[in-house]
Amino acid sequence: MSLKQAKIALVFDWMTNPGGAEKVNHVFHKMFPDAPIFTSVYNPKKLKGFEKAGITTSFIQHLPFAKTKHQIYLGMMPYAYESFDLSEFDIVISSSHAAAKGIITKPETMHVCYCHTPMRYAWDNWHSYIREYKMNPIIKSIGKKRIHKLRMWDRLSADRVDHFIANSNTTKRRIEKYYSRPATVHYPMIKSSQFKEAKKTKGYFLAVGRLIPYKKFDLIIETFNQIGLPLKVAGTGNMEYELRSKAKGNIEFLGYVDDKKLRELYSEAEALIFPQLEDFGITPLESMASGRPVIAYGKGGALDTIIDGKTGILFKEQTPMHLKAAIEKYQKTKKDFKPQELIKHAESFDKKNFEKKFLSYLKDKWEKWQTNL
Predict the structure, then answer these.
(1) What is the pLDDT of residues 301-349, one digit of tens each?
(2) What are the backbone dihedrals phi and psi of residue 370, each rounded to the nearest 5 degrees, phi first?
(3) Residue 161: how many CB atoms within 10 A of its CB?
(4) Which pLDDT value is given to residue 88?
(5) Domain 8-189+350-371, what architecture?
(6) Residue 254 has pLDDT above 70, yes or no
(7) Is the confidence at residue 211, as pLDDT, over 70?
(8) 242: CB partners within 8 A, 6+ apart
(9) 3-class SS of residue 369
(10) CA-based nearest residue to 251, from 210, 289, 292, 222
(11) What is the pLDDT of residue 72?
């Protein structure tokens, strides 16, 4: 059976808000438009681009607040994904940063997992997640006591995957560490042609993303409060009120911005501020595709995309002192960053390259899979 003849299903984690994983999911949907999508929760008002998809949701979809506060049902996610009947499919592609890889398939079905990260709040980030995440103290206390069970399930569910693809070298190492499984690295993508270089920047720095603890927006706000340079923040999240209350007048919160406005913000900024430890990070690529460099924490996925001194500036510690020093270094050397070089670098991560590489990988694995049936 050829790959074109194979019956394919897509399995995604909750589809409730736009983000990096959701951009990858949308590309998978476009690559396999006839493949049905299985997910725990879907909020079509918040997540666009899947209007024509055949989407099957779990029982969690109908529970109170599921579309806006899926986190309170994290303990139910394993059962939700195990409940999906995928017995009619030849190939299942899961896109997972939490529970999607935990689906159960028959022995004849090939399961390929595109892993954005092993469940971060169950493994390397679980202490800080419990400590920093804004949630009901009662729920937090219960979660702290039960996280070990979720961790056990997450480890066991990894054995159900036949082939792992990691979105970065950082994620590859995590998969090897926590799941004891090998993985092939396929970087996420951007649509580089959508981004354009502005004729002139407008002097502000830019921060983009969900306003949640691990994204380190508190570090950005503290630093820019000290240095007084103009900063624009695009995004929403449960830390928004707290961050706004701390920010001085040089910091502007834009809330949610659409893709068109975001592309404009990238192109007219001095640089993107990216202080978090990410599995990969698509926003730095979008900034570079707009001809603008990135000031980033020098660990994690940033090392796969940012060349220190050529496409951005990396700093060693997540402190205001180190971020401030990196910004000062940018101001002294910003003429060294050539927009066309940044754009060319970003183009190597274009969607077309991702699709070609992924299809070649899938075809190869499928051909070998059938010889062993």
Answers:
(1) 999 999 999 999 999 999 999 999 999 999 999 999 999 999 999 999 9
(2) -70, -30
(3) 24
(4) 97
(5) 3-Layer(aba) Sandwich (3.40)
(6) yes
(7) yes
(8) 134, 218
(9) helix
(10) 222
(11) 86
Of the candidates 96, 248, 220, 238, which has an alpha carbon nearest to the alpha carbon of residue 166? Answer: 96
DSSP-assigned letters across all residues of 75-106 = GGHHHHHHT---TT-SEEEEEESSSGGG----
CA distance 38 to 9: 8
Instruction: Provide the β-strand partners of residue 253.
Output: 233
DSSP per-residue codes, 257-312: --HHHHHHHHHHSS-EEE-S--SS-SHHHHHHHTT--EEEESSTTHHHH--BTTTE
- Which H or E element spans position 148? helix 137-158
State the DSSP string of 200-262: S--S-EEEES--SGGG-HHHHHHHHHHH---EEEE---TTHHHHHHH--TTEEEEES--HHHH
> Cβ–Cβ contacts within 10 Å for residue 283, how many?
24
Instruction: Say if residues 292 and 342 touch (Cβ distance below 8 Å).
Output: yes
Say whether pLDDT at 52 is over 80. yes
pLDDT value of residue 137 = 61
Which CATH class for the 192-347 domain?
alpha beta
Q: CATH 3.40.50.2000 region(s) of the chain?
A: 192-347
Residue position matching structure tokens 């206390």: 141
Position 216, amino acid: K
**Both structure tokens of 325:** 């020093």
